[in-house]
Amino acid sequence: MSGYPDLTVSETAHALTVIRAGRRARELGVEDPSAPWFVDEAGRRMAAMAESCDRVYEEFNLVRFLLTTRRLRARAPDFSQAVFLGAGFDCRAVCLEVFRSGRTAVFEVDTPAKLARKEQTLREHGVPLPPWVRPVPGDLARDDLPRSLRRAGYDPAVPALVLAEGLFFFLPPELTGKILDPEWLPLAPGSRLIFDFWTDLRVDTLNRRVRESIGIELFHPLPFNPAPVVLEADLRQRGWQAISVQPLDDDSEVADEFPESWFLAEAARGRRKESPGGR
Predict the structure, then answer these.
(1) Tens digits of per-residue pLDDT, 96-119?
(2) Residue by residue, what is the 3-state secondary structure of 117-178?
(3) What is the pLDDT of residues 168-194, one digit of tens each?
(4) CB 210 within 8 A of CB 49
(5) How many Å apart are CA 242 and CA 136, to the nearest integer?
(6) Rounded-to-integer distance, Cα 176 and Cα 145, Å
(7) CA atoms of 62 and 29, how far apart (whole Å)
(8) Do residues 9 and 170 make contact, with C-beta atoms less than 8 angstroms apart?
(9) With 0-12 CB in 10 A as exposed, 13-18 as middle and 19+ as buried, what is 180?
(10) Quick one: average pLDDT of 254-259?
(11) pTM passes above 0.70
(12) Radius of gyration over alpha carbons of the chain, in Å?
């Protein structure tokens, strides 16, 4: 397994802190003061493996972080609740000024171990978890997330801002399809979803390279054709509107070997749909 015997998808959150704590992040103006606190050897190894397989791994993840930060700053003031799916070691709910008023409750969803380590690490550095950040431990594939969110104080009758950053290409297609259904949480009209996705070519090629490096495949395709026009049509059928899809190439200084294969999307929840969408 080429020197990476124990790397799994769980280390991807660690790897992201490595690059957000690095020189290139500073050059691009990435603001993540807590990132160095989470850097560890597993993260360094995962980042090294990822960079060996994908030359835009560091650049595009940092560009995505900048773009989603910009959107969080612009959108959060309009919402009293937000949901971060697969929050990992992302501490923007704690650190960004737009959340520090406490007006927006941020429900952070991830595994119990990851959320516990996040809270412990913050406390060790003198940053107690603020009251507006509400951890929701659970497994997206096995647990009843809508129920867990409601127990944590989530109100399905109130519009929510939902962030699914770096998530869908790690989930089985049927689970991604469930999350993209605005009735699943459910999401009230006026809610917004921000997410990124890959084309099948990127998924297939990187899976092959990762398999050659560590003996496993990490990535999954979307549950429908990821071409932007097709994706927009599918999202509309599911009850989304005001859909925007942006290739990360547009904001990067590094050329991707697969042009327009990594996109950032945003959509608003429209009226309640009358019948299930998707394939």
Answers:
(1) 999 999 999 999 999 999 999 999
(2) HHHHHHHHCCCCCCCCEEEEECCCCCCCHHHHHHHCCCCCCCCCEEEECCCHHHCCHHHHHH
(3) 999 999 999 999 999 999 999 999 999
(4) yes
(5) 29
(6) 13
(7) 9
(8) yes
(9) buried
(10) 90
(11) yes
(12) 18
Burial class (CB in 10 A: 0-12, 13-18, 19+), 131: exposed
Predicted local distance difference test score (pLDDT) of residue 275: 44
Residue recorded with tokens 């070691």:
89
Contact criterion met (CB below 8 Å) for 183 and 239:
yes
Q: Where are the alpha helices (DSSP H) in the chain?
A: 12-20, 23-28, 35-38, 41-53, 57-75, 92-95, 112-124, 145-151, 173-180, 200-214, 228-238
Structure tokens at 271: 């009226």
Among all chains, which residue has been given the structure tokens 């050329």?
255
Q: Which phi and psi (to 5°) does residue 76 adopt? A: -55, -40
How many CB atoms sit inside 10 A of residue 245's CB? 18
Question: Sheet of 240-247: strands edge to edge?
Answer: 133-137, 105-110, 81-85, 161-164, 192-198, 262-269, 240-247
